[in-house]
Design brief:
Blueprint lengths: L2 E2 L13 E7 L3 E9 H15 L15 H7 L1 H25 L9 E7 L3 E9 L18 E3 L3 H14 L10 E4 L4 E11 L7 H9 L12 H5 L9 E7 L2 H7 L5 E13 L6 H8 L3 H32 L8 H20 L5 H4 L3 H24 L6 H9 L2 H10 L6 H20 L7 E3 L1 H12 L2 H6 L7
Parallel strand pairs: 6-11
Antiparallel strand pairs: 1-4, 2-3, 3-5, 4-5, 7-8, 8-10, 9-10
Length: 474
């Protein structure tokens, strides 16, 4: 893979070195730099001289210690840091002298390092952006920009339809529920106590550890606790004990003992083929007006999210017509990533309707499309000054490391900064295109029925089930 080397800011850096091109294909050049070892001695001497005024050594006033003594005391650090600085200067010199007129696709990569008696040898890979003209973005055919307009009566009809056709039940805000394997839904409250009778607020504990509350506290309880709720009725109490975590003991200043989990059943509801809306609200003891208000807000948010996907698809479909050369190795790399993802899904028996039906040729076409759109997206955002790099997001979240640690500790995957960055970039991109190439077009009001029909027509019927996922138990 190699190590990426960020280029220093342009200055008067210049180093004597031998420069040879090992490989060249128009988008990439692999070059070999031979740097005299005398340059490392000069860089180390510079390192020492810059630090001399700051160094305090017993027997000498600050900044007055002899150079030879500083070199001896800090020789390992001086050599290591000087070596890295020399590499950056060498790569920067090559870029300035040979490639300054080209646009780099990414930072240069050190592919190989070695030393001879007289030289430091570096193999450095420079990759360049294809020549791209984004003028054809001006020819994007206008397409409607929708904004969902949803009256209370329309939403009530939408909800009643959901209840009439689904065996599942809606998620209820601020309510803890569990579907048992005897076709019942139990609604319950959880109380967690220490054996000495004191309360153990798990949510407070996890909020302290992860800097925010990721899930309701009952989500941290073992699954076998919920398996035991089968057959319980209103006002029944299920009780069990769990071992007390050492961190919990320290956080709550608790003595040795166990956690006692008490689950009180508030009500139960049969899970039948369908409930009417009013039947379900009665079972769940929910206020109809508040329930519909909360669910309507979620429905609008979810549908607007898919309006964004619809607009992105329209723009990306047009961008596919922008012609430029793409390095084959980028496509081959993406193909390897796509194939590995699909193979892993099959191995883990994860559903992947799209992936499992793709032939090898289709995967290659998909890989090329993704590479092309990725390069175009980067080019347009960079030219507009909107590009948000992965390092930007990483720096932002470095102040919130507990959040990332919390995600990575609890979820079956690591928080993907690059994926999160891509999502933000795409939102910036779509907004930019609408503003600058579609003349800041005003959104068109649309009913939920018409919107769902248009989304299904453009993106397939399955998209409606994805949209409605906000509504149902998984």
């Amino acid at each position: 893979m190699g190590v990426q080397v960020p280029l220093p800011a342009p200055d008067n850096i210049s180093l004597p070195m031998k420069f040879d091109i090992l490989e060249k294909d128009g988008f990439l050049e692999l070059v070999r730099l031979s740097i005299p070892k005398d340059e490392l001695k000069k860089e180390t001497a510079l390192w020492v001289s810059r630090r001399q005024p700051l160094v305090s050594i017993p027997g000498f006033r600050k900044g007055k210690a002899p150079i030879a003594l500083i070199q001896k005391k800090y020789q390992d650090t001086a050599l290591s840091e000087s070596y890295e600085q020399l590499i950056k200067k060498s790569v920067s010199t090559v870029f300035k002298e040979h490639y300054q007129s080209k646009s780099l696709f990414k930072n240069p990569i050190i592919k190989k390092k070695e030393s001879t008696d007289s030289d430091i040898i570096l193999d450095v890979e420079f990759s360049f952006k294809p020549d791209i003209s984004i003028e054809s973005l001006k020819d994007i055919p206008p397409f409607p920009i929708y904004e969902l307009e949803l009256s209370d009566d329309e939403f009530l009809a939408y909800m009643e339809e959901k209840f009439s056709v689904k065996k599942t039940l809606p998620k209820i805000a601020n309510s803890e529920e569990h579907v048992t394997d005897d076709n019942s839904v139990v609604f319950y409250n959880v109380e967690v106590l220490h054996t000495d009778g004191s309360q153990v607020p798990l949510k407070k504990y996890f909020k302290n550890i992860f800097d925010f509350s990721i899930m309701p506290e009952h989500e941290f309880l073992p699954m076998n606790v919920f398996m035991s709720l089968k057959g319980l009725k209103k006002d029944d109490v299920y009780e069990t004990t769990l071992a007390l975590d050492d961190k919990m003991k320290e956080f709550f200043s608790l003595p040795d003992g166990e956690i006692v989990v008490k689950i009180k059943i508030d009500r139960t509801c049969p899970l039948v083929e369908s409930h009417s809306l009013d039947e379900y609200l009665s079972y769940a003891n929910l206020d109809k007006e508040k329930f519909l208000k909360d669910e309507k807000a979620k429905a609008i948010s979810k549908h607007q999210e898919y309006i964004f996907f619809f607009m992105k698809k329209k723009i990306f479909d047009h961008m596919e017509g922008i012609v430029f050369d793409v390095p084959k190795r980028y496509i081959d790399q993406e193909y390897s990533n796509v194939k590995k993802t699909i193979d892993d899904m099959k191995k883990n028996e994860e559903p992947s309707n799209e992936g499992e039906s793709l032939s090898d040729e289709e995967m290659k076409r998909l890989s090329e499309r993704r590479v092309r759109l990725g390069i175009l997206l980067s080019e347009i955002l960079s030219s507009a000054g909107l590009f948000l790099s992965a390092s930007d997001v990483s720096n932002f979240y470095s102040k919130k490391q507990n959040i990332l640690q919390g995600f990575n500790a609890l979820l079956p995957f690591n928080f993907n900064v690059e994926a999160y960055t891509q999502d933000l970039n795409e939102k910036n991109f779509v907004s930019y295109i609408i503003k600058h190439y579609l003349n800041n077009q005003e959104p068109e009001k649309i009913s939920i029925k018409d919107l769902r029909a248009k989304l299904a027509s453009e993106m397939g019927e399955d998209i409606l089930e994805e949209i409605d996922s906000f509504f149902y138990h998984s």
